[in-house]
What we know:
Helix content is 30%, strand content 22%. It is an alpha+beta fold. It has 2 domains: 7-197, Chloramphenicol Acetyltransferase, CATH 3.30.559.10; 219-365 and 389-431, 2-Layer Sandwich (Chloramphenicol Acetyltransferase), CATH 3.30.559.10. Helix 8 (247-262) packs across helix 9 (309-331). This is BAHD acyltransferase. Pfam families: Transferase (PF02458).
Amino acid sequence: MTTDLKVETFRTESIKPSSPTPLNLKTFELSLLDRMTPPMYIPLIFWYTGNAAADDRFLEAEERFHRMKKSLSETLTRFYPFAGRISDCLIDCNDEGVDYIEARVNCVLHDILKPPNGELLAEFLPIQTESNEAATGRLLLVKVNFFECGGMAVGVCLSHKIADLYTLSKFVNTWAAITRGSNEAAVFPEFGCATSFLPPQKDLSFTIPAMEFNPGKGVSRRFVFDSSKIPILKACTASTTVPQPTRVEAVTALIWKCAIAASPSPSPSVLRQVVNLRKRVNPPLPENAVGYLVSYFTVNSPESTETESQVLVKRLRDGIREFSENYVKKLEGSDAVSTIFEAAKEVGNLSRRDDIKFYNSLSWCRFGVYEADFGWGKPTWVSVKGAPDASNIFLLMDGRDGEGIEAWVWLNEAEMGLFERNHELLAFASVNPSVHC
């Protein structure tokens, strides 16, 4: 896509819940994990192809906008804190509303997806993801972009202070279900699970450490692991100790290995893997539990300069086992607060060390993002945006078929130049291929 892309906003509205929030629900308390989360928005963009004839596109766009606004209002009645505002450690559920933006794009969808330019994708989001408003202002913003061909891009940003990607996916899928009239597929979220699991601390004798990603400017690349290559990669990363690695373990290990190889210095590395807590704790949290309900574990790379993927898979498997057997049990006990603070302090110290290469790895797989059907079909593609002010991040998302993986990788420019030419990586992944409409 050329640089003459224009995404022109022509309408901005505040959408409020269809029914006022009851008085007994007017205040929502943030959990300890919510409070520790850095102020930023979680971004997702859902891309849909258009089918209308040229003469009908304007009318179709207006009809879609009307339906989406009406159903968004109904959805906010269920997800009522999202229409409020953060005040200190609370959300004032005042029904002030969410921003809903409508925009026209001066091209067809094909121009954006053949192939996608990660840095341009931010144009389709309603706000900068690094905005501090995530901690003080609007919690949820939506931008619906309409292309000349009738295609759409629905950009959604939700404050990380109240949600994780799992929560965002549940919200969008519920909104989509209500839009298409499938109320049985719409969920009733369960708020308060995070504060029940990890109650807020009123009197803290020390400052809450913020959980942050690596600072510094990075460049992003998208790598697609086709579903046909996943079984081969899993077989290549299998060993006697981990005979059946998961696809996330196999892809993460390969990316980590290639990132280590691209590093100019032979320093040891540490990988932080983010984990969804909902099914890890005992008893498990409800499936529709809303909030920032994730934690993480760290694993070290081997000391040898030649790092095999099988070894890294084994370390990832040992890491999640140790996390589940020890760390999670501490979260369920009386030492939960000190356990969280010590882990955050340790990770913060590791990320600031000059003699260690520190990587952050996130998996957004199996979260159902491709189920968001508003009534005109499931998305052709679901994406994030490129070029955040951070580096050394690996983000894995499902492919459209649910079996492949799309990996977004952020490294500094010099290391990315080596990483994206790694022959072992390219044996399994394509670099930013076009998205087929």
